[in-house]
Each structure stands twice: as structure tokens, then as C-alpha cells.
């Protein structure tokens, strides 16, 4: 018997988020091993993350490719899926992201779990997370509701690469990724004490982005599959 569509969605979100976090942490470790220049390290980290994100969205989009609890909650708020399913998908994303962090650590010969000591806090950094998540929700649902899902992988990935550089927080913009990154005391890590502030700002940015999406695209475009 084949798995149900929702089970397939959960597996896709778990696997996709695991690979996303693995690319973030793994490329950060590799970058610091190959260069002492922080700018070069961030460049390598952002490009590797963006490239992985394109591949993952293109591959998993036919099943499910949010990889982000904020995006999933916004989808539920727009009537795209039941709240209970959104919650379960969020759990799959957090579990997948944590597994990705563990695997990335092990690939580079580090302890499976090492809580990060990299503190990330302060008004400017928190504002950066609001901006990063606001923009991500705008890009994702602007593309979906205007019927341009075929270009979504490139739009989202391009935005994330850019946001690494133009936001003070280097654009985590994802609660599942944020939680996972606290398990790696490496270039991409975040101290556990900094996680609640980041997640709160991501939820705020997501809510603001959702409000603007409702104004700009009150209905799905006639070009979208849902209404074709």
C-alpha cells in the first residue's frame, strides 16, 4: 500500500529540511577550513546554501517544499492546508533540520551534537530577522498567488543568497533551521539563548509578510493550477 499524500508531504519536508540545514552547516565548516577571510566564508556559505535550495525546491516541489514552519503556517492562514497538518509538517521540519545538523557535524569529524556558543542578539540583528522573514514570505506567496510557481525555486534561492548579505542577521528566516543550527558549534551556529529571540522575530516578520500578501494578491491568479 502506497503512503498517503500527507505522509509523503511530511517525509519531503523532513528530508528537504535536513538537506537544507546540512548545506548551511556543512558549507560553513568547509568555508572556515579553506579560508580565514570572513567575507569569503560568508560568500561560500551563502552560495552553497542557495544552490542547494534551488535543487531541493525543484526536486521536492511536486510533493512539498516549504522547509520552513513560518511558510507552512502562512500557507495554513491562507487556507492552503488545515492547521493540524501545518503543525505536523512543522514538527517534521524541525526534526529534519536537527538531523541535518547532526549529520553535518559527523561528516566533518565533529561531535554529533555540540551546542553553539555563537551569540546572536541585539536590536539590529532582531530587526534583520524580521526583514529577512518578511521578504521571504513575500517572495514565496507572491510567486504562488501570481501563478509563477515554475520560477519559485530560483526566486526563493536568489532572495536567500542576497539576504545573507543585506540583513544584519545573515537571514536565518526559518525557525526549524534556527533550532537546528544551535546543535553545531561552528561558523553557522547560534547559541541556544539567542534562539527564542530569533524565532519570535521570524514569526513577526512572517505575520507582516502575510498581511502584505493579502493586500497585494487577495486571490490566486487564474493562471495557477488550483483555478485552471
Our measurement of the CA-to-CA distance between the termini, rounded to an integer number of angstroms, reads 31 Å
State the assembly state of the protein chains. single chain
Mean pLDDT: 95
Query: Globular, elongated, flat, extended or rod-shaped: what is the shape?
Result: globular
Largest sheet entry: none
Organism: Nocardioides jiangxiensis
Subcellular location: Membrane
Keywords: Membrane, Transmembrane, Transmembrane helix, Transport
Transmembrane segments: 12-35, 47-74, 86-108, 123-144, 151-173, 193-217
Note down, in words, how this protein is organized:
With 228 residues, the chain is mainly α. It has one domain (5-216): Glycerol uptake facilitator protein. Helices cover 68% and strands 0% of the residues. It is built from 8 helices and no strands. Helix 1 runs parallel beside helix 4 (83-107), helix 2 runs antiparallel to helix 6 (152-166) and helix 3 packs across helix 5. It is globular and about 50 Å long. The protein starts with a helix and ends in a 12-residue tail after the last helix. The relative contact order is 0.17. Keywords: Membrane, Transmembrane, Transmembrane helix, Transport. This is Aquaporin.
SSE topology:
Blueprint: H1 5-34, H2 38-60, H3 69-77, H4 83-107, H5 123-145, H6 152-166, H7 175-181, H8 195-216
Helix pairs in contact: 1-2, 1-4, 1-7, 2-6, 3-4, 3-5, 3-8, 4-7, 5-6, 5-8
InterPro entries: Aquaporin-like, Aquaporin_transptr, MIP
Membrane topology: Multi-pass membrane protein
Subcellular location: Membrane
Amino acid at each position: 500500500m502506497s503512503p498517503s499524500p500527507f505522509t509523503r508531504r511530511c517525509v519531503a519536508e523532513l528530508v528537504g529540511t535536513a538537506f537544507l540545514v546540512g548545506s548551511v552547516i556543512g558549507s560553513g565548516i568547509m568555508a572556515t577550513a579553506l579560508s580565514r577571510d570572513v567575507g569569503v566564508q560568508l560568500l561560500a556559505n551563502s552560495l552553497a546554501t542557495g544552490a542547494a535550495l534551488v535543487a531541493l525546491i525543484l526536486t521536492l516541489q511536486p510533493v512539498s517544499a516549504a522547509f520552513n514552519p513560518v511558510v507552512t503556517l502562512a500557507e495554513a492562514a491562507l487556507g492552503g492546508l488545515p492547521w493540524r497538518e501545518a503543525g505536523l509538517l512543522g514538527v517534521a521540519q524541525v526534526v529534519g533540520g536537527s538531523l541535518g545538523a547532526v549529520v553535518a557535524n559527523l561528516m566533518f569529524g565533529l561531535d554529533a551534537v555540540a551546542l553553539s556558543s555563537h551569540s546572536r542578539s541585539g536590536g539590529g540583528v532582531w530587526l534583520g530577522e524580521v526583514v529577512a522573514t518578511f521578504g521571504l514570505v513575500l517572495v514565496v506567496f507572491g510567486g504562488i498567488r501570481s501563478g509563477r510557481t515554475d520560477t519559485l525555486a530560483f526566486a526563493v534561492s536568489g532572495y536567500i543568497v542576497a539576504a545573507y548579505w543585506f540583513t544584519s542577521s545573515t537571514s536565518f528566516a526559518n525557525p526549524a533551521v534556527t533550532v537546528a543550527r544551535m546543535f553545531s558549534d561552528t561558523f553557522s551556529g547560534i547559541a541556544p539563548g539567542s534562539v527564542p529571540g530569533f524565532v519570535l522575530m521570524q514569526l513577526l516578520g512572517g505575520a507582516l509578510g502575510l498581511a502584505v500578501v493579502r493586500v497585494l494578491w487577495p486571490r490566486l491568479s487564474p493562471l495557477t493550477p488550483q483555478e485552471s
